[in-house]
Write a structure and sequence with these properties.
Number of helices: 8
Order of helices and strands: EHEHEHEHEHEHHHE
Distance between the termini: 38 Å
CATH topology of the largest domain: Rossmann fold
Shape: globular
Number of domains: 2
Strand order of the largest sheet: 3-2-1-4-5-6-7
CATH superfamily of the largest domain: NAD(P)-binding Rossmann-like Domain
Number of strands: 7
Structural class: alpha/beta
CATH class of the largest domain: Alpha Beta
CATH architecture of the largest domain: 3-Layer(aba) Sandwich
Largest sheet: 7 strands, parallel
């Protein structure tokens, strides 16, 4: 267990990619601080599940990732609860699709706040703790959209490009501290967020969800398969391992060939 006696924050971990990563880190022995929105009873069930996976403990913090003060409290409470903050996984994200000229300003602000600024705030709060310990792993869940663009996703694409830039800056600043910072860039992952997009497409076109799944993948990915949360979680575990100790500012892409086109 490579993360025994270490503690991890995983933002947006009550479902999807974040939950998959939380499970994988717990299996490697880490204490896990969960974060995300959802029904209180459902979140408590997830917390109990995570606590039962490995020897580490699991807790939950309800920080709204658009609010810097709550983010600071998330990091502080993790350190107080577990004694350290060793791994930080910035995964929280939201989406809105619209042409630039009709993109709601409030949606732009929310997406940039949660998908980009929250990562700055968590890193800013956690870095002093990691540097003091002489070890840390910062993993930013970016996106293929951090490397290339798609129409009608101005805020998401801009935010994810920003995450890649933030990752590189943090990597340079942490180069000789024992802390690494890298990004994971998924293509299409069948998360609740993507499922809503597919269902909206099917409703708009009068087609089936299955047809729209294939159409969505076919637009971008030569390999017509969704990346799974478990595959991305394995990448996160790898980035925490000794084998990745000299990786800084990297973008690990899992996109079925999307960016190879």
């Amino acid at each position: 267990m490579i993360l025994a006696n270490k503690s991890a924050i995983v933002t947006g971990s009550t479902s999807g990619i974040g939950l998959g990563i939380a499970r994988a880190l717990a299996a490697e022995g880490a204490n896990i601080m969960l974060n995300g929105f959802g029904d209180a009873a459902a979140i408590e069930k997830i917390r109990q599940e995570i606590a039962g996976i490995g020897p580490g403990k699991a807790a939950y913090h309800p920080a709204d990732m658009s609010k810097p003060a709550e983010i600071a409290d998330l990091v502080a409470k993790t350190a107080a609860t577990f004694g350290s903050v060793d791994v930080l996984v910035n995964n929280a994200g939201i989406q809105h699709v619209a042409p630039i000229e009709s993109f709601p300003i409030e949606r732009w602000d929310a997406i940039v706040a949660i998908n980009l600024s929250s990562s700055f705030h968590t890193i800013r709060a956690a870095l002093p703790l990691m540097k003091k310990a002489g070890w840390g792993r910062i993993i930013n869940v970016a996106s293929t959209h951090g490397l290339v663009a798609s129409a009608e996703k101005a805020a998401y694409v801009a935010a994810k490009h920003g995450v890649i830039g933030l990752t590189k800056v943090a990597a340079i600043e942490c180069a000789n501290t024992g802390v690494t910072c890298n990004a994971i860039c998924p293509g299409w992952v069948l998360t609740p967020l993507v499922q809503k997009q597919i269902e909206a497409r099917a409703a708009e076109k009068g087609t089936s969800v299955e047809q729209e799944e294939k159409a969505l993948l076919g637009e971008k990915q030569p390999q017509l398969k969704f990346t799974t949360p478990e595959q991305l979680a394995a990448l996160a575990v790898f980035l925490c391992s000794a084998a990745a100790s000299n990786m800084q500012g990297s973008q690990l892409v899992s996109d079925g060939g999307w960016t190879a086109l």
